[in-house]
Amino acid sequence: MNELKPKLLSVMKTYSKEQFIKDIIAGVIVAIIALPLSIALALASGVSPMMGIYTAIVAGFVAGLFSGSRIQVTGPTAALATLVASVAMKHGINGLAVTTVLAGIILIIMGVCKLGNLIKFIPYTITTGFTAGIAVMIFIGQIASFFGISTAGYKGQMIEPIDKIKALIECRATFNPMALLVGVVSLIILIVWPHINKRIPNSLIAVVIASIAVKALGLDTGDNKVETIGSLYEITTKFPSFVMPEFDLALIKTLLPDAVTMAVLAGIVSLLSCVVSDGVAGSRHRSNAELVAQGLGNIAVGFFGGIPGTGAIARTTANIKNGGRTPIATMVHAVVLAIMLAFLVPFAKLIPMPTIAAMLFMVAYNMSGLREIIKTLKRAPKSDITLLIVTLVISLWLGLMQAVGFGLVLASLLFMKRMADVTDITCWTYADDYHSVQEENENYEEDSDTENISLKVVPKHTLVFEVNGPLFFGAADKINGIALNIEEDILILRMRSVPAMDATALRTLENVFDTCKKNNTALIFSHVNMQPYSVMEKSGFVNKVGKDKFCKNIDEALKLAESLEQEYHQKRKNKKA
Hints:
Number of strands: 7
Distance between the termini: 70 Å
Oligomer: single chain
Number of helices: 23
Shape: elongated
Order of helices and strands: HHHEHHHHHHHHEHHHHHHEHEHEHEHHEH
Radius of gyration: 32 Å
Strand order of the largest sheet: 3-4-5-6-7
Helix content: 55-70%
C-alpha cells in the first residue's frame, strides 16, 4: 500500500520552517504564472475562463494533497484542451462535468490496479507524436483570435482541425489588422522578456502591457475593435461552488469512451510531468499514488464547475526553480489563486484575445517538442520516424486516443520484427564440410563473426546449432526446419543466448523433437535458461524429451552426445536396413 501513500505524509516527517518559507514563495510565484495560463487554456478548451481558474484552485489543492509527487502542480493543461472542447460542444457543460467525474473514477481505478508503472511501455516516439498533434490543434484553434477573424458566421461545427481551417478560409474577409498588431506585440514580449528578466513571468508582462495599450488607445471600440475576454465572456469573483452534475445512465454510456480517453491522456501527461520534474529536482514520485491523486482532483473539479486537469510540466518546473520541494507549495498555489480570484480576476476582462492567442502559441510551441522531432527525424531509425509521423497524423485525423492505440499496436509490431530479426540459428562450422572434423575429432571455426567455440571436440555424427535471441511466434519459423534434412545421429541445440520463449516457439520445438524421434536422432539441449526451461517443464516437454537430455553447458552436452552416438547410429542403420 506504500505505492498509494501520498508524498505529503512522507515529507512532513522531516519538514522544516525554512522549507515552509520556500514552499510559500514558490506557491505564490506559481499562482501568478498559473492565473493567465488557466484563463488561456480554458478559452482554448472552448469554455468560460472562470472554469480554468476553478480547475487550478480545486484540482491544484486536492491533487496536491494526495499527490504521489513532492513537486507536481496540477491544473488545466493544453493536453486535454481539444478533447474538452469537443465534449463541451457535443454534450454541453453538464456532459463535460459527467465526463470529468468518470475520468476521475477511471484514474483512481488505474492507480489502485497499479497501472502507473505501465507508462514506461509507451515509446517516446508515441508521446512525442501525439503531443505534437495536440500542439498543432491548439495552434490552429488560436489563429482566428490572433488575426482577429470572426468565425461567428461559419455554419459548420469547428471541432476537428480541418473544420477550423475551412472556417478560417471562409471567414478571412473579417481579418482585423489591429488585432494582429496586438497579437504580434504580445508574442514579441513573450519571446523577448525571459532574456531581460526571468523572475517576472513573461505571460504576466504581456497581459499587463497589452491590456493597458488596448484600453488606452481605445482599440476595444470602433470598427476595428480588438476583442477582449470581457467582451466575449462573463468574469465574476465567485468562488467555486458545489454543483451536482445530472447523471443519466444513457448519458454515461455515451460519454464513457471520451472519459476513458480523458483518463488515459491525463494519466500519461501527469506521469510524464512527474518523470521530467524528478529529473530536475532529483526526487522520485509514486506513480500509482499520483494517478489516484489526479483522479480525486478531477472528481472534485467535476463537482465544482471546472474542466479536467493534469500535472502541468511548465508550472511544476517553475515550482522547482523557485524552491518548492513539497506538496505544500502546490496547495499554497491553489490558495493564492483563490485570493487572486477575489481581487485580480475582475481585471482579466481587459485582456485582449490576441494576447491569449499569443500565449497559447507559445504553449503549443513549447509542448510540440519541435527540436526533439527534428533530432528524431535526423538520427532515429526509420521505424521510429514512421511511428512518430503516423501517431502525429492519426492524432490530427482521427483523434488522440486512436493515435495512442494505433501507435502502441504499430510499436509492438515493429518491436516484434526487431526481435525476430535479431533471433538467429546457426550451425557450427566444421572444416571440409564436417568430414575432416570427424576424422580429426576437433571443431574448427572458419567465420570469426560467429560465437562458435573453436577447437571443441565434437563426437562423430553430431551437429551443434547455436540459438541466439528470444524465441517467440515472430521468430519460431527459423527453428522449424532444423531437423527435417539432418543425416546425423545427434542434434544439439545450444540455447545459452535465449532469454525467453513463448508457446508458439515451444510448439515448434515439439515438432523438431517429433521429427528427430521419427528419424532416430537424439535431441540434446545445452544451457537452457530459467524462463525457457520453466515453459518446457510446465508443458511436460522436459519429461517428453527426458531430463537427462538437458545439459548445463556445451561440454556436458558433447560428452552426452559421445555416449549416445553408438546407440543412435545403430538405430539409424537398422532403420535404413
